[in-house]
TrEMBL record:
InterPro entries: 3-oxoacid_CoA-transferase (IPR014388), CoA_trans_fam_I (IPR004165). Keywords: Transferase. PANTHER family: ACETATE COA-TRANSFERASE YDIF. Its EC number is 2.8.3.8. The keyword Transferase applies. Pfam families: CoA_trans (PF01144). It comes from the Bacteria. Belongs to the 3-oxoacid CoA-transferase family. It comes from Roseobacter insulae. This is Acetate CoA-transferase YdiF. It catalyses: an acyl-CoA + acetate = a carboxylate + acetyl-CoA.
Amino acid sequence: MTKVVSPAEAVSRIPDDAVLTVSSSSSLGCPDLVLKAIGERFENEAHPRNITSLHPIAAGDMYGVRGMDYLAKDGLLTRVLAGSYPSGPSHLEMPEIWRMIVEDRVAAYNVPSGIMFDMHREAAAHRPGVLTQVGMETFVDPQRQGCAMNSRGAAAPIVSRVRFAGDTWLHFPNVVPTVCILRATTADERGNLTYEHEGAYLGGLEQAICVRNNGGLIIAQVERVTATGSLRPHDVHVPGHLVDLVVIDRDQKQTCETRYDPAISGQVMRPWDSFSHAEHGVEKTIARRSAQELRAGMTANLGFGISAMVPRILLEEGHPDAVTWTIEQGAVGGVPLTGFAFGCASNADAFVPSPQQFIYFQGAGFDLSFLSFLEVDIQGNVNVSKLGKKPYLTAGCGGFVDITARARKIVFSGWFEAGAEIEMTEEGIKVAKPGRFTKMVEQVEHVTFSGDRARAQGQDVLYVTERCVIRLTEHGLVATEIMPGIDAQVDIVGASGGRVTVAENAVPMPASLLSKSPMGLTL
């Protein structure tokens, strides 16, 4: 008996009050056709109703893959827990899921992606939920927001502080999924799934196991179906006994702008000179200084924003494979991609399922992490997860909290001020016009990274900007390196309202950071 059904038939099996878990990372691996069918069924039948949806990483984006926005309907969706949400620039219309959140029409939570995967593992094994110290003293902690994104979320807490084995932990009770929706490339007639065109495995296997162990329904969206026995067992990532129904979407893409690139799925290797270098400018200067923290043979984690440019710095400097990059979607090695393809990598050495990648991150197996910041406060706290005026400009915390929880060294990158006009030559940088506001604030809007906890754990933390390099110290934020051309008292101390001080032994940043030609980086 075939498992292949139409999208409409597949979603007709989803009952009211179901808990959906969706495997996706923005447009990467998003089972968009099935999610669309759920929204259409609700429009036609008013079912399924009262759904809870779980998204370890965002489903959909703002660039043509709607994803979770298909579920954003009153009566259909009542609760959503996600590591991240669709995000994009302010000139685009706010996604409907964000509108529901800010209008308090759905109970919404931003849960670190690694913890979301941990929740699936614990529910699969019928253990009593997640016990973790990831997120302590951040917005994840119930002493702050407890992951809640609005009043409806705050009224139904999902995390508490508990004492266990002489220490304090965060406890997330199980939220047991009853329907899993995932995506692969190929299914055979028994439902065995391979991922040969995908840019990552993500968490589909673990999510399917969790739902199967709790007696639920697993729906797989694929590009094609092949005969039983035609798939190599070593290529099967999700075995057929975990799959109930298969939906075919012959038009599914690798990313929102990529129909299919074999280098993203590791089927070919690109020449190093085929990758573009970072465009010359202020952000490249910041990325260059960040790259100076690397040494050959290191393993480094990489986040979105300016920090994503660091691998391109190494390419330009002639060190394409001196560092092993690891990203939360699962790629190890190669060159992480930027822009719409962020979360993918070309020339990867391996693809690790995201749940295992997060175990590695939470235990701080890597040497250092490059991340970006929206704002930093006097305690060294960092916010990347909330902008009250334009909430959809940030995707939420994603894997940021898992990565920074125990990282030995963290390099945050960002502009010192928002909207400043900068004149840059190969000799120095001049602030031609001050920005609208400083990124160095008295208190961040959302604590995604805790400076106090970092100090207590002895973490090495740098904040790299176009004006200076700032270190987190026992005395707060101290600029230890100053960019040539910058007036330290005016452009740093004054511009930050005194929140950043300058070390007596501060040194100039190398002028080679400003060069239009390679800077001569050695690792």
